Backbone:
């Protein structure tokens, strides 16, 4: 499983766009990039998953450059409720059989008023 | 229904007690997982069940015993735990379709304290 590196913490303000970058230099050909969000004392929640270029859903966008050695989670117009830990995971999560998620340390995002 | 439920929410047990954690989902997911999460740390995988069979055991001590009685239920039996086993225990499930496994849905967790 590819190792990921993210900033330990980030601060921003309500209404701003927040971009969290994840480095994954050893990503394999079959690997997908997946982001989860976790609030205190709750289970992680799936945000978005992508393989290359750009993926967008109702919550976030995921930008992946051509070499796929990094990715950026973009949260548009954040609010106080986006304060959480964000995890970037890389792996062949769509492979057959059991799925093994290995969480890195994550990025603790704090949104200020 | 896109919910994974876990009971109890909180559990306090002594080192000689036997207790069980329960997890339930009705999304038709055929993969289910147990994770352990210590404070301010990421979740760590413990066990994975695929089609009700144990497929991954991450070298978890035998005082933790998982059970998957049917496709909707997952239990974690606890016996002779140590204080360092105190943590948030998370259950998750994921869809398996066409040979592929999709994103995991997590429950809210059981906060376990071992005294």
Residues:
């Amino acid at each position: 499983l590819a190792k990921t590196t993210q900033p330990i913490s980030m601060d921003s303000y309500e209404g701003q766009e927040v971009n969290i970058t994840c480095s994954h230099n050893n990503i394999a050909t079959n690997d997908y990039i997946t982001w989860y969000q976790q609030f205190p004392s709750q289970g992680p929640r799936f945000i978005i998953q992508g393989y290359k270029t750009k993926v967008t859903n109702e919550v976030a966008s995921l930008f992946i450059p051509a070499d796929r050695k990094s990715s950026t989670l973009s949260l548009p117009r954040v609010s106080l409720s986006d304060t959480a830990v964000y995890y970037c995971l890389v792996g062949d999560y769509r492979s057959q059989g059991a799925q093994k998620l290995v969480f890195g340390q994550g990025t603790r995002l704090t949104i200020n008023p | 229904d896109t919910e994974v439920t876990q009971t109890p929410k909180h559990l306090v047990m002594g080192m000689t007690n036997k207790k069980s954690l329960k997890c339930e989902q009705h999304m038709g997911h055929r993969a289910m997982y147990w994770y352990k999460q210590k404070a301010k740390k990421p979740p760590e995988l413990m066990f994975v069940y695929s089609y009700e069979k144990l497929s991954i055991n991450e070298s978890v001590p035998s005082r933790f015993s998982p059970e998957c009685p049917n496709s909707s239920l997952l239990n974690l039996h606890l016996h002779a735990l140590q204080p360092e086993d105190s943590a948030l225990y998370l259950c998750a499930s994921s869809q398996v379709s066409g040979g592929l496994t999709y994103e995991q849905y997590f429950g809210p967790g059981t906060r376990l304290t071992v005294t």
In short: The two ends of chain A are 38 Å apart (CA to CA).
